[in-house]
Batch of 2 targets.
Target 1
Amino acid sequence: MSGMNGTGVLNGTDEREAARHQVRELEEQERRLVLDRFGNEDAWRLGCLLTDLARERGAAVTVDIRRGGQQLFHCALPGTSADNDAWIERKCRVVERYAESSYLVGARFRAKGRTFEESSRLDPDRYAAHGGAFPVRLRGTGVIGTVAVSGLPQGDDHALVVDALGRYIEQRTED
């Protein structure tokens, strides 16, 4: 039987191996999804693209984009609630602390056979290593902000952000 054993340790080497594989995939996404610049207009365009993708998919999500301490874009689609805003806050804190996507941070803990909630020593009411918040990383600079989604299962939140960032970078390359 797999799952938690009550001590914050995951049972089963298969789960840890799957998490290690996931870590490699998520690291590759972060290497690939790097921007050359990111201003207010970029946040607006990326936010609109992300919102349009969510609408096309019928996804009830909240979208949030920040640079430093400033919120540059926020949209709550029908079917969302203030709980989605709270999830975004918690996931973005993970990105700000670790400079990696919230999903990658959670996967790193799972790869070690642990859970973020019990092993990070961070308040789970303030930090959530669940998929959906991704670093805005500038080439030659590093992480300067976050783009986040909440409303879907964590893997789907993460995939929506990655899809939008990939499309946005591709569009900018074509301009």
Target 2
Amino acid sequence: MMFRMIAIVAGLGLALATSAEAQTPRKGGTIRMTAPYGSSFTSLDIHTTQRAQDEIYAKALHRSLYIWNSAEGKPVLELAKEDVVSGGGLVHTFKLRDDAYFHNGRKMTADDVIWSYNRIMDGTKAYPGARFVRVIEGAAAVEKGQAKEISGLKKIDDFTLEMKLTEKVDPGFYFFTALTSIYPADEAAKESFIQKPIGLGPFKFVEHVPGSRIVLERWDRFYKPGKPYADKVIVSIMGEAAARDVAFRNKEIDTSVLGPAQYVAYQSDADLKGTIVEVAEVFTRYMGMNPAFKPFTDKRVRQAINYAIDTDLIINKLVKGKAYRATSWLPLTSPAYDKAMKPYPYDPAKAKQLLAEAGYPSGFEFEWTTSQNESWGLPIVSAVIPMLDKVGIKAKVKQVETAVLAEVVRSGDYQAFIYSQATGPDPQAALKCFHSSTPQPACNYMNYKNADFDKLIDAAGQADDPARRTELLQKANALLYEEAPVWFFNYNKAVMAVQPWLKGVQLNATELTHQNVEDLWVDETSPAK
């Protein structure tokens, strides 16, 4: 039951997948992907950045303990061959692969896994992956500077690792993203590593041209026989939708994320409508409110904002239907999504009443930080401002670059912001972002604290019965709806145009641009040699 929803969504792309499987994958050629979420990569150190933009190249360069399997809609073992569970569901003993070689030719061992997780828990660095590693016993002590090493990690031998967790969860949901990539312990500590990163992935690093592209080439000692198929991967930065459109039509790129306007245009173009792939992603778009800013301290004010905005109108007219209305935090594809919940209705009168009750009968003024993103940035903010104005709330826009926005959000340096955040695939991990023990830089961006919410999440983490866990998570999600720490905007429908010669594209509900590139291949009609 747990993965039924994600599996259904993944099934939408079955025709695409089966047509690719009917052909024998071709060796060689170049895969030309795009990084569409801004004008730069944040860093070549993937541990430091939570941006979807950076994980596009990292999926080719690095590997984590698990990997996302889009066909099954769940994480599966990647750098380990076996996981034996004991200790009442809290102890996991991983039999690691003994054929995984870093790009410098050295074999990965348990020491590299332990070193990487300890690095991520360095409290002075506030690495975003700490939100996942924190599930290991003793990780929080390292983060607080009370211990040098994570006590819940134990090396049995070079290829056997014991991991003790604090909660009865599937570790796959915590260790599949690039944020928890395994680095070579001896090399990653060197300063040169950031200029020329070394990973375990199917492609090794060749060059990074800042503001332009990252080039990777085939790693011949990759542990999956016969893979990768392609010789080279180029990830080009194209934050402008118009630039991607021209490049795609001119056959200069193989993939292009489509925004709302392009989605409509490609659907009505006979030559392009066959290139569209789409999936309901586990992302929630929202406006986050800083509870330290006086008006937003009051729950009634936060609720008033949800009532004051005609969200359906914005989704239909501005987002062109390329989204699903958000009710609370957990998206449609979440196994704990409660379809009985109804979103906040558009009700300006109710918004005014709540503002008056909270002591703001004439409204108030706040600063709203946004990027230019066409799906959840400046165009949306511009549409919302007159709606808020109607109930007396004045918003001043502060526009920043996407990469800057990510830092603003993590640092708490805002009155309000608008953002798109991964809210799956695991509902426990997604809701944990609102737990008072989760630091702001990890993912508790609103610095939210609520004792009743904490109790529900803690109980879910210790529940043996999956149905009971889901029930507790749904209650926590309903509490967030009531508390309204954010304006609940939408869940993303991800849409990407794919050239007909690129095969093996996976309908990844966790982020459509994140492809396991070893499974992609290009046929002989590709213009890139």
